[in-house]
């Protein structure tokens, strides 16, 4: 049975798109694990690749703690804690299907990842949102072009944020190509726009963890991050 995880008083009422949050046991993963994790999920859940509303949240260790900094480089490895979670953004009707991951051990780039339990996390009511990786064609290398492309896609959804701020570039390697992405923060959304963007996402490659938005409470935190 999928339990509902409500860890923030500002969560929205459950809607048709939710996050399935899995407790996992996994010691380490490559920093660039998007393709390997996506392939492992698709092997275990064959419907995931073709499900329009499905997306994969990538796994992130702490950015910094007690002087420790997140590792960089193509071969860098994340050391994960027991609190690390795996999350899939899914249509609510797919929750029972996703629960078939429970008790399974996925092979992610040679690292075993065991799925232990599942909880449901509704979309947030917070109106400042952040995505770590957004793919918008070839625009990632130029901040102005990236923001213009983002504004165009947002406008097509009827979303006009009060402020947009793009951040650092990240590469995601796949066997056929390397994707160039940028982080993106949006502030000044209405509640309706926030929920719509969380449901719909932005740009391409949702199955590789791109274009999924999460709540971000402090715009100053993002401005202080190095590009």
SSE map:
Elements: E1 3-4, E2 17-25, E3 28-30, H1 34-44, E4 55-57, E5 64-65, E6 68-69, E7 77-79, E8 85-91, H2 95-98, E9 105-108, E10 111-121, E11 129-134, H3 143-156, E12 163-173, E13 178-187, H4 191-200, E14 214-215, H5 219-223
Parallel strand pairs: 1-10
Antiparallel strand pairs: 2-8, 2-10, 3-7, 4-8, 5-6, 9-10, 11-13, 11-14, 12-13
Tell me what the structure shows.
The protein is an alpha+beta fold and 227 residues long. It has two domains: 119 residues, Alpha-Beta Plaits (2-Layer Sandwich); 95 residues, 2-Layer Sandwich (Alpha-Beta Plaits), CATH 3.30.70. The protein is 19% helix and 33% strand. It contains five helices and 14 strands. The strands form four sheets. Strands 1, 2, 4, 8, 9 and 10 form a six-stranded mixed β-sheet that branches. Strands 12-13-11-14 form a four-stranded antiparallel β-sheet. The protein has a two-stranded antiparallel sheet with strand order 3-7. A hairpin with a 2-residue loop joins strand 5 and strand 6. It is globular, with a radius of gyration of 17 Å. The C terminus is likely disordered.
Structure summary:
The protein has 227 residues and is of the alpha+beta class.
Q: Measured on Cα atoms, how large is the radius of gyration?
A: 17 Å
Here the CATH topology of the largest domain equals: Alpha-Beta Plaits
The CATH architecture classification of the largest domain is: 2-Layer Sandwich
Query: In sequence order, what are the helices and strands, one letter per element?
Result: EEEHEEEEEHEEEHEEHEH
Helix content: 10-25%
Structural class: alpha+beta
Shape: globular
Q: Sheet with the most strands? A: 6 strands, mixed
Strand content: 25-35%
Number of strands: 14
CATH class of the largest domain: Alpha Beta
Total count of helical runs of at least 4 residues: 5
Which segments are poorly predicted (pLDDT under 50) over 5 or more consecutive residues? 6-14, 63-69, 221-227
